[in-house]
Amino acid sequence: MIGKLIRAVSGIRAALQLAEVGYICECGAVLRMAGDFCTEINAIAQALHCGRQPPAAVRAFVDQYFIPRERTPDEHDAAERVRYISREELMKADVRLAEGTQIDGERVRVIHRFLNMTGDAYVHGAYETAMELYNPETGRFEMRGHPNPGKREEFVEAVLLRSHEVVVAIELSALVMGRQKVFEAAREVRRRMDSEQPWKVSPAQVSGVVRS
């Protein structure tokens, strides 16, 4: 969990810098990865918090995380092929967390899949993501940072929204690991973010939240 949190926090900081200088597609790709890390963290935290035997998918995911990587092409070619645990299997934790609340778990799954699809477009270089860089006024693609302040601000806000997921992942991790001070600090930040309306938050405010 700590290893995934390190990557998530580092990714959020990088995504903010990319958004601020206009590398919006690269920002989207990093945010997509950070979202995966949060899903993985939440799956482990939910399993630990319940106090029961973790689901087989979670146990396998943790085991796979620590598998040493092959160091040469031949070693990799000779290695047994591993079917890695999918994010769809780990996403079940979000549905379980909704159980016993007024939140529709299946609706959570639908929204989560949609957000994953949107982020996948940036990771895989979908047509729409390339066209986001096209400037019809000049007939050129903006590959040195998107010059439109509105477009940059749109992605800065996306960083804020993903940052909320990262803070929740920190909060859950601290809870199950018994790190009370970290838990309380994360909870306070999360509550402060809950009270904000992202569309009314300036890029400078977002920078302050993320960099803290």
Give an overview of the whole structure:
By secondary structure, the protein is an all-alpha fold. The protein has one domain (2-211). The protein contains 11 helices and 2 strands; from the N terminus they run ααααααααββααα. Strands 1-2 form a two-stranded antiparallel sheet. Helix 9 (149-177) runs parallel beside helix 11. 29% of the residues are buried. The mean pLDDT is 87.
Number of helices: 11
Integer tally of domains: 1
The main pleated sheet reads as:
2 strands, antiparallel
DSSP strand content? under 5%
Radius of gyration: 19 Å
The termini sit apart by 20 Å
Record the strand order, biggest sheet: 1-2
Class from helix and strand fractions: mainly alpha
**Number of E-state strands:** 2
Task: Describe the secondary-structure layout.
Blueprint: H1 2-20, H2 24-50, H3 56-65, H4 73-78, H5 87-90, H6 92-98, H7 105-123, H8 127-131, E1 134-135, E2 140-141, H9 149-177, H10 180-194, H11 203-211
Helix pairs in contact: 1-2, 1-9, 1-11, 2-6, 2-7, 2-9, 6-7, 9-10, 9-11
Salient structural properties:
212 residues; mainly alpha; two-stranded antiparallel sheet; 11 helices; 2 strands; 2% strand
Brief synopsis:
With 212 residues, this protein is mainly alpha-helical. It has one domain (2-211). Helices cover 71% and strands 2% of the residues.
